Description:
Layout: H1 2-25, E1 41-44, E2 47-50, E3 55-61, E4 64-69, H2 75-85, E5 92-93, E6 98-101, H3 107-144, H4 150-183
Amino acid sequence: xxxxxxxxxxxxxxxxxxxxxxxxxxxxxGKVSIAILDNIRVDYYGTPTPLNQIGSVIATDATxxxxxxxxxxxxxxxxxxxxxxxxxxxxxxxSETIKLFFPPMTQEQRKEVAKEAKAMGEKxxxxxxxxxxxxxxxxxxxxxxxxxxxxxxxxxxxxIQKYTDEFxxxxxxxxxxxxxxxxxx
Length: 185
């Protein structure tokens, strides 16, 4: 029974790490990434559709993204969606493609993005601690129901704490790496 709780704990904590990686991919660093467009939805015949599902999205260099819709009629819709998303650039269209020119980041913008990364890291740590609490509650319930002894319960909670410490350390390392990446010019 404890092994089941351990496995569930590890799985949930790993999902938190994966979620943090996805969140980090939406942050802009020195080099522009197409992931910055992940949350943009285009009205595709009445259905909000992710941008990368209605055309090709390519980062051609460190400051430019080119979007080529598969249907040329969607150019206006894509432009509108990008403007509404407020990602800090205006779309430039030539009736075939849409180009997004991202200006180089200022030091102030870099600090702001680093602060966002730190906030995302803190949110992930809270999620890890919530998983720990749920796991510890499950162990305490087993002890209360007399399915395990007090000693085994204590060992189980210590094991959960080890997982928590390990994953919090991973998050700290990820945040530090992201901050360094963003601050590097």
